[in-house]
TrEMBL record:
Domain PIH1 N-terminal: 8-134
PANTHER family found in the cross-reference section: PIH1 DOMAIN-CONTAINING PROTEIN 1, PIH1 N-TERMINAL DOMAIN-CONTAINING PROTEIN
Positions of the UniProt region annotated as Disordered: 249-268
InterPro entries, A to Z: PIH1/Kintoun_subfamily, PIH1_N
Record's compositionally biased regions (Low complexity): 251-264
Family affiliation: Belongs to the PIH1 family.
Protein name as annotated: PIH1 N-terminal domain-containing protein
Gene Ontology cellular-component annotations: cytoplasm
TM spans (from-to): none
Amino acid sequence: MLSTTKIEPGFCFESKAFDEKTLCVVNVCGHDSVGRALAKNMEVIPDSYLDDYGLDNLIIPISVGQPRKLSKKYDISIDVVVHSSLVQRCVKSNRLFDHYVTRLTTLAIDWILQEAGIRLNTRTCRLIPGKKYFESDTYNISQKLSEIAKTIEMGMKGELNEQKDSSVEALESKFRCTNQQISSETKRSPLITEVPASTGIKKGFLNDARLYGADGSSECSKPPPDPLMHIPEGLRKKCQIVDTRKLENGSSLPLKSPLSMSTSNDQPTCAGSLAKPISEWSVESLNQVGGEIVIHLKPPNFVKSIKDVDLEASPECIDINKTTVSLPCRIDVNGVSAKFLKSSMVLVVRCPLL
């Protein structure tokens, strides 16, 4: 029989069972006969690796004892045994204390479900502070550790019988999940399923069918897309859009332009014909925004500030240094304002509508 001195208590935690009424206590202990932590290639992990990296991606041998019924605070007591090298690191002085306690608790809950059939609620799991082993009413820690060592020894020799007392049988039958429940939870859908044979589609079902009607395909008979789709509808109504595709050969501008130049002998008029530019003023943009017309004009080289600008306004046009700009709507002459932007050398004229 194994010596009880080799069994080392680690920590204990409490958790409720799946019925949310039964309170269980789990004792995590250590014994050298369980087996050390292994890598994926089944090689033994050295202690230096456990100190630096913990239990992630390792194979942890574990043994789960029979659940015992208690009579005071807790209803069930379960012992879980791992190798002593893992339990020895479940102390607060170890920098990976939280890591080891969390990993071993999760591992214990999974194996209790597989070995004892008792599902513990992880949300109600709580570490019992200041306790390494929870003693029952009728068993002290030495008796419990002796039974754990005996169970491990019998399991190693393959002599573990299936004899259980009546209290354990009643306890397991009450809280153990049935095989049907466990299989339904762990059942996975097959990766490959057989496609059922169907007679919905038969060979030659399109022999008497036609893809197109008498008029043929209508795939390309849709109206052409709007070339001005990228311009918002509200902006189209405020601007004068010229379709250059419809212009005749030799003509590049519409017949009417908002800019007309006047000579020194003639007076500027709004309805007059276009004249040859003599003062080099050019209209960059003319937009109607809200209740006013905003005009951006590029001045000639000799204009350096607003002092060099001679601005006159009439209800139908404005005159800037003998340059006449026709307006699409009548404006309020008293509200006309101008601003010269020296940074961009642009004259901005705002004309409120009547």
